[in-house]
Amino acid sequence: MSNSSRDKIRVRFAPSPTGKVHIGNIRTAIFNYLFARNAGGEFIIRVEDTDLERSTQDAIDKLFECMEWLGLDYDGELFYQSKHAEKHIAAAEELISKKRAYRPKQKVAGEKVPVLFRIPWDTDNNPLVQVVGDVEIVVHSEEEITISSSGISYAQVSKKRKPIPTAAALAGFHHLKIVDADENILFDLDDKIEAILENNESFSVTGAAKFAFERREVFFEDIIKGRLAKPLDTMKDLVIVRSDGSPVFHLANVIDDATQEVTHIIRGDDHVENTYRHLFIFQALEKEAPQYGHMPMIVNHQGKPLSKRDGDAFVGDFRDKGFLASALFNYLAFLGWSPGDEREKMSKNELIEAFSIERVLSSPAKFDGAKLANINGHYIAELATANFAEKIANFAKETERVEFTNWAESNSDQFCKVAELMQMRTKMLSDIDSWGYFYNSTIKYNEKDLKKTIKPELIPLLENLKAKLTNLASFADMEIDKALRETETESDLPEGRLNRPFRVVITGSGSGADLVTSAAIIGKDKVIARLENICKGA
């Protein structure tokens, strides 16, 4: 089941357009993209839209908006899974004809039933299956056991001796003997298997104490995690066509991968269970299976899968907050992968050149929002000032920050000065929401912080400072700083003592960009008015 006959690597990103684009899905796209581009292969897109009730055009549009924003260009034409249903159904009929799939008995005449794929019973020479050894499992003696062509239903025993209903495919129980508490054989599967599979007979057993059988497992070599295996006695035959005649993901996925000649499937490790089943379907259809690699899940700080309950979990959330596409791309590329050196920030071309599937980690990747924000800040800091200003202006328009946009367009000189001043302090473009003190006539103060910073004894000093600033012929950085220092000297205060109170008065915050430059950009009239307002209100 190798892909030795295929010369060119071809990978696919196969999202289901049923909602917002989760960053876990887009990271899957990024890893596939980097893998394909590194190898000179193809990165193709398959829209798995067979869930017609939940799949929407809006979700499809948002998906491709996200991909375009991140620069994930793809090869070939789009492939819509829903348009290939006839091929999926034909494959199911082929499997039925080969006795690799079946329709269960109707409970009532005329009932519509699904099609189930049979986990293969005859695995003596199957390259996907290996023998583990003889095992015994205790079963609940008060629960009836049923054995039929669709599998075995029985009950295991809990710690409190309660029955745990269990079902599994026949394939998991080679040489099964069901015995009672006295070791008497109640049922020997080897004697009945032909009747079950060929004649569709079923059997019931009561009073059993344990199963004794040869355990076998399906296995494959994962190109990320190494060898993975699953006991066949933990698997059930699976539905591949619903009772309404529509193909299920498992069948459609395999047929489309074969049709599109996909050589490698790189996806999240929540799909490992699917892979065991898909390999059997490829084999039953005599199709060449791709190589599989399962990436680590993205988890929160508690080690649980990242979800919307953890805050931002969708690509659109990050775009709306003003993360740069290049920064998010970079961060997600490093989320579960390492170039093997100390680098944590690389261009897309550098990532393509360095990417290796062997360096994808097998352990869960912890999402760190603070680290992403810092990385985004580094990307912002590297922008040319004019480019930064343009990005901010576009972001404000796109996110309908009307007041900001009106100011930026009507006072471009001040806007450009603010952009230059604030660029190095900006981690997300949405940080512009805190820039209102530069252009608003009034600002809102935190009364608690104001009282804590503006002590009554400081009011005369602020009045003095206001007078000095009022008399300035040029409201420039050096003159503002000189007025501050003179006010401190005249009151025997150490240099810098008035910086924080002055900042709180003119910006509403105790920290920020360079104080005197901020004051100069805010402008003389607003600064004087804010000093006067505070002094009068004291």
Structural class: alpha+beta
Number of helices: 20
Mean pLDDT: 93
Principal-axes geometry comes out as elongated
What separation lies between the terminal Cα atoms? 81 Å
Radius of gyration: 34 Å
Instruction: Determine the strand fraction and express it as a percent band.
Output: 15-25%
The biggest beta sheet is recorded as: 5 strands, antiparallel
Number of E-type strands: 19
Low-pLDDT stretches are: 1-5
What is the compact description of this entry?
The chain has 538 residues and is of the alpha+beta class. It has helices spanning 23-39, 57-70, 85-97, 189-199, 249-259, 272-284, 315-320, 325-333, 348-354, 369-381, 385-398, 402-410, 412-422, 436-439, 447-453, 459-470, 477-490, 499-507, 515-522, 524-537, and strands at 10-13, 42-47, 79-80, 101-102, 115-117, 129-138, 145-148, 151-157, 163-168, 174-179, 185-188, 203-205, 210-222, 226-231, 238-241, 264-268, 291-295, 298-299, 365-366.
Question: How are the secondary structure elements laid out?
Answer:
Layout lengths: L9 E4 L9 H17 L2 E6 L9 H14 L8 E2 L4 H13 L3 E2 L12 E3 L11 E10 L6 E4 L2 E7 L5 E6 L5 E6 L5 E4 H11 L3 E3 L4 E13 L3 E6 L6 E4 L7 H11 L4 E5 L3 H13 L6 E5 L2 E2 L15 H6 L4 H9 L14 H7 L10 E2 L2 H13 L3 H14 L3 H9 L1 H11 L13 H4 L7 H7 L5 H12 L6 H14 L8 H9 L7 H8 L1 H14 L1
Describe this structure in words.
- The protein is α+β, with helices and mostly antiparallel strands.
- Helix content is 40%, strand content 17%.
- It contains 20 helices and 19 strands.
- Strands 6, 10, 11, 13 and 14 form a 5-stranded antiparallel beta sheet that branches. Strands 9-8-7-12 form a 4-stranded antiparallel beta sheet, with no helix packed on it.
- Helix 11 packs across helix 13.
- The longest helix is centred in the N-terminal third of the chain and has 17 residues.
- The protein starts with 9 loop residues before the first strand and ends with a helix.
- The N terminus is likely disordered.
